Amino acid sequence: IFVALTLRYDRHMSWKRNPVGEFRSTDFPKPYFTACFIAYILGLVTTTAVMHIFNAAQPALLYLSPACILSVLITAAIRGELKELFLYTVEDEKKKEKEDEKKKKRPESQIIEQIVEQEVIEEKKVQVEEIELEELDKMSFEEQVSISKKMFYGGLAFLPFLWLVNFMYFYKTSQSPNAPRELKKYIYLSLTGCITWFILLTTWYAIFVNKRVAWSTDVDGITVVIPKGV
Fold first, then answer.
1. How many domains does one find in the chain?
2. How far apart are CA 124 and CA 139, in angstroms?
């Protein structure tokens, strides 16, 4: 379902860039779907590989969920579309689909008027979004470094996702030629910390699931659910 949703989001972003085009068209760029689909396949391969290496069944979602979610977040960060991603809703698409159905029943003059009105509305939306996205650019580098530094140290309190947000939020700014080295230092340290946490947690979970029975019964104290008969 999540992979299918990324395809729908690709269609939404394509229509947003070209609102005059046919909303139901299948000919549009699919960066999010491609990234998520590849991540899904890699997640399945990883699950199968770990299953054979440890000779024990693996919870597929342990690998698929992070792979799919991170692939979409990283794609959005690279394309500078994180804000649009988090604000996405299917309500706009439903309205657009209803409008397309009504257009087929309207005279050509009314269709042209509707297109013009839609373009004006979309232009206003873009202007508002540009103003909101410029808020980060209005900050001085000192303010950005201060925020990034706080987010990095906040991630040390066992909050690896705060590191991920720090990296994605300031990555685009850090690529500026005038960006201070300190800003780059904190966002790349955050990325390194997030990846390290993910690897450690995944490794620990895989080892624990496969070795729990062989270990002492004392480890059952940290097990949330113990299958019956084990």
1. 3
2. 24
Tokens found for residue 70? 């991170």
Find the largest Cα–Cα distance for the chain.
78
Helix, strand and coil in the chain, % to nearest 5: 75, 0, 25
Residue 101 shares a structural domain with residue 34:
yes
Task: Please give the Cα distance from 14 to 84 (Å, whole number).
Answer: 12
Strands (E), the chain: none
What is the spatial distance between Cα 69 and Cα 90, in angstroms, rounded to a whole number?
Answer: 18
The answer on 100 and 2 residing in a single domain is yes
CA angle 143, 88, 124 (to 5 degrees): 75
Report yes or no on 97 lying in a domain.
Answer: yes
C-alpha 103: how far from chain center = 34
**159 and 87 in one domain?**
no
Domain of 28, in residue numbers: 1-105
The model carries a pTM of: 0.51
Q: Using the 8-state DSSP alphabet, how is residue 222 labeled?
A: G
Q: Which residue has the tokens 């209005």?
A: 138
pLDDT in tens, 48-89: 888 888 777 777 788 888 889 889 988 888 888 887 888 887
Say how far apart CA 207 and CA 112 lie, in whole Å: 63
Is residue 230 in some structural domain?
no
pLDDT band for position 131 (cuts 50, 70, 90): very low
The answer to the question of residue 229 being in a domain is no
Quick count: other Cβ atoms within 10 Å of Cβ 108? 8
